[in-house]
Design goal:
With 751 residues, this protein is α/β, with parallel strands linked by helices. Helix content is 46%, strand content 13%. It has three domains: 158 residues, Glutathione S-transferase Yfyf (Class Pi), Chain A, domain 2 (Up-down Bundle), CATH 1.20.1050.130; 248 residues, Rossmann fold (3-Layer(aba) Sandwich); 144 residues, Isoleucyl-tRNA Synthetase, Domain 1 (Orthogonal Bundle).
Length: 751
């Protein structure tokens, strides 16, 4: 006996099912069949020297079965086959398998039949396209289907089955695990019982100038990165920022620009807001210190300190300008630092050595208004008695700096103050622009800006919500994370905590402090007056994505020592890391899925991946390391860990040789590589979101998924049947010629 089987050359799902039925049957029944290719949309079985000519696949399957049991009779049609030829056929035509059809099938079907039975082969083949689309939701049928598919002879047919089904239609369907979605922020964010509640602040920048890149990375970008991370972990988070608007610096700048201090604050508050918006700094609320809430809360703290005997009046000698006849507040005076001999030290602090100063300590002081030499005269001021609070402050610092894992430089600065011994600290100034001192006889004085400014975090929160005390007077349920440059550490670890302790109120106090050193520019310092360096308003002029700037600044974040902004390094990191690593990984796989799968994620078995368990462990180890670094606010190492996962994703595609040959010759393996790979991209898009949110959002859109949370370990988030969108380039190569052009434009010094 000689049988010749012609498979259908059609590309529809009906053609695919027909071919699968007869191919599985011929393998199961081990018949000597010659398979030929004929250009036809039908399967045809012919018997040499016979008039037998079968063109209906179910009949061919039943005929094969009859031959295998050596019977001359064709088995009778069962009710289940009638159902298959009507209901399941209609489902294939309409590409819609509803739950009622599955339920009816489950009631009719005998799951105890052996795989040699033609009914099993016919039903399995008809269900196969729906299985590939993850549309079989009946658990009883699904369990049988998986068991049948894993029968060795069936599995072999499936892996070697070369007749391609028509590529599935990309309907835009979303099929993901909902428990991996990032939680949406509520209209009013308040602490929640039973959750981890995190309050995050970035140092309030002086409103009197435009921030440069060092200012951006030193506080707002670092704070934003951590805030985005903990929000992507679905913690309950409030991120507060704003501008510090009172003080000498504002008065002097307003005089130079010939406008009022309020006009100056309004102008630069808007400038700051626009710059941070462009850098994708996602404050939950961005406020300012020139508000009524600031006055009310700062004066309340002052009054409680006064009541608790932590404030005292002192008559001291203060510099007075004989030319314009005014006492000079600290920032109106400049001279040589008595500690490090820096010639441009301000009257409140030396920018070089970081020491806090009183103006009269300066060597050869000069009035900033008219360059006159000031003279000492007696005046009264209010002092915060830090010496009386040292014991409590010292105990708090030693406990909290370890518990909250402060950055090393922050602990060093705070402990150096304690070692020297805390002294009474003047908290009033002879100025007009500031919070009025609520004490008789001090009507013409204001609170010192660095006593007042740290209270700004509280007042800005109060302007966000009338329930501000739920954040700021809730130490058992709220953790306060603060981000700043090293020159601000003393005010946040000594002055502000001492003020909180001195009121005896149940304040939420600093839990973790993340402090940066200085970012230098091409071997020198940023200088607006000398036109040296890139400032916030310049960055957007280069036509690059905010993600490129954020990535570079975070990659050189000066966490333990000063670091350098370098144009050559900036371009190299864009081209060699963002483009060649992350961009290549995402673009390569998304393009491949669109080309070969019409953008529809296939069903697969990860066991078809080479060394799958080892690969999975590698990704989990990398993800655990990433989360450890980020939880401990090691942002630079966290970024490196995120990019290491992307690099491993690239290597995964290379190791498994993802290409058209794999798709054509090892389809089952290709399906698994694609499914696993797209889930790596999903996790990568989540873990990079704290650093480069614009890029992350682009990947989410290409994956056709909403924002995802950051998981503890690798999970299959994107399921079979999910439809992705078209690939879009994430980054573009920067011509190295731009290095010299930009260096010249921003007057950087050659290294």
């Amino acid at each position: 006996m000689s049988l010749t089987l012609s498979l259908s050359t059609g590309k529809s799902e009906i053609d695919f099912v027909s071919n699968l039925k007869v191919s599985v049957a011929s393998a199961v029944y081990k018949l000597p069949i010659k398979v030929v290719e004929v250009d036809s949309n039908n399967v045809v079985l012919k018997k040499d020297s016979s008039s037998l000519n079968l063109v209906e696949p179910n009949s061919i399957v039943k005929y094969f079965y009859a031959l295998s049991i050596k019977s001359n009779s064709i088995i009778e049609t069962l009710d289940i086959l009638v159902f298959e030829e009507t209901a399941l056929y209609s489902s294939l035509v309409s590409d819609n398998l509803n739950s009622e059809t599955l339920e009816s099938l489950a009631n009719l079907f005998s799951f105890s039949l052996k795989h040699e039975c033609p009914v099993q082969i016919i039903i399995f083949s008809s269900l196969y396209p729906f299985f590939k689309k993850n549309l079989i939701q009946n658990q009883k049928i699904l369990a049988w289907f998986n068991e049948f598919a894993n029968v060795p002879i069936i599995s072999k047919v499936l892996s070697n089955f070369n007749t391609e089904v028509e590529k599935p239609q990309n309907t835009g369907r979303v099929n993901i695990k909902d428990d991996f979605l990032k939680r949406k922020q509520e209209a009013e964010i308040l602490p929640k019982d039973g959750e981890r509640n995190i309050l995050i602040t970035s140092a309030l920048p002086y409103v009197n100038n435009v921030p440069h890149l060092g200012n951006v990375i030193g506080s707002v970008l670092s704070a934003d990165t951590y805030a985005r991370y903990v929000k992507s972990r679905n913690y309950n988070v409030l991120f507060i920022g704003g501008t510090d608007e009172y003080g000498t610096a504002t008065e002097t700048r307003a005089l130079k620009e010939n406008i009022t201090p309020q006009q100056l604050c309004d102008k630069y508050h808007t400038i700051h807001r626009k710059i941070y918006d462009w850098f994708d700094i996602d404050f939950d609320f961005f406020g300012r210190t020139t508000t009524n809430q600031q006055t009310v809360i700062a004066q309340d703290i002052f009054n409680k300190l006064y009541k608790n005997s932590y404030l005292e009046e002192q008559t001291n000698e203060q510099l007075y300008c004989p030319v314009h006849n005014k006492f000079l507040a600290d920032r109106y005076v400049e001279g040589t630092c008595p500690h490090c001999a820096y010639e441009k030290a301000r009257g409140d602090q030396c920018d070089k050595c970081g020491k806090l100063l009183n103006p009269e300590e300066l060597i050869d002081p000069k009035c900033q208004m008219d360059n006159a030499t000031p003279e000492l005269r007696s005046t009264d001021h209010i002092f915060l008695q830090l010496d009386k609070l040292q014991g409590d402050v010292e105990k708090w610092i030693h406990t909290q700096s370890e518990k909250g894992k402060w950055s090393k430089n922050a602990k060093t600065i705070a402990n150096s103050w304690l070692k020297e011994g805390l002294r009474a600290f003047a908290i009033t100034r002879d100025l007009v622009w500031g919070t009025p001192v609520p004490l008789k006889g001090y009507e013409n004085k204001v609170l010192y800006v660095w006593f007042d400014a740290t209270i700004g975090y509280v007042s800005i929160t109060a302007n966000y919500t009338e329930n501000w005390e739920k954040w700021w007077k809730n130490p058992k349920n709220v953790q306060l994370y603060q981000f700043m440059g090293k020159d601000n550490v003393s005010f946040h670890t000594i002055i502000f905590p001492a003020s909180q302790i001195g009121t005896s109120d149940p304040w939420t106090m600093l839990y973790h402090l993340s402090c940066t050193e200085y970012l230098q520019y091409e071997g020198g310092k940023f200088s607006k007056s000398e036109g040296v360096g890139v400032f916030g308003n310049n960055a957007q002029d280069l036509g690059l994505s905010p993600s490129v700037w954020r990535y570079y600044l975070l990659s050189v974040r000066p966490e333990s020592a000063d670091s350098q902004f370098s144009w050559s390094d900036f371009v190299a990191r864009n081209n060699n890391e963002l483009l060649a690593n992350l961009g290549n990984f995402v673009n390569r796989l998304i393009k491949f899925i669109n080309k070969n799968y019409n953008g529809v994620i296939p069903d697969s078995d990860y066991k078809n991946i080479n060394k799958y368990q080892e690969t999975l462990k590698e990704f989990n180890d990398l993800l655990i390391n990433y989360n450890n670094e980020m939880e401990n606010v090691h942002l630079k190492k966290g970024l490196e860990a995120a990019m290491a996962i992307s690099s491993r994703g690239n290597l995964f595609l290379q190791d498994n040789k993802l290409d058209n040959s794999l798709y054509k010759n090892e389809k089952s393996k290709c399906d698994a590589v694609v499914s696993f790979g797209v889930n790596i991209i999903a996790i990568v898009s989540a873990i990079i979101s704290p650093f480069i949110p614009e890029t992350s959002e682009s990947i989410f859109k290409q994956l056709n998924v909403p924002s995802l949370r950051i998981p503890d370990e690798f999970q299959t988030i994107i399921l079979p049947g999910h439809c992705i969108a078209k690939a879009q380039y994430l980054f573009k190569r920067i011509d190295e010629k731009k290095i010299g052009e930009w260096r010249k434009k921003y007057n950087g010094k050659q290294q």
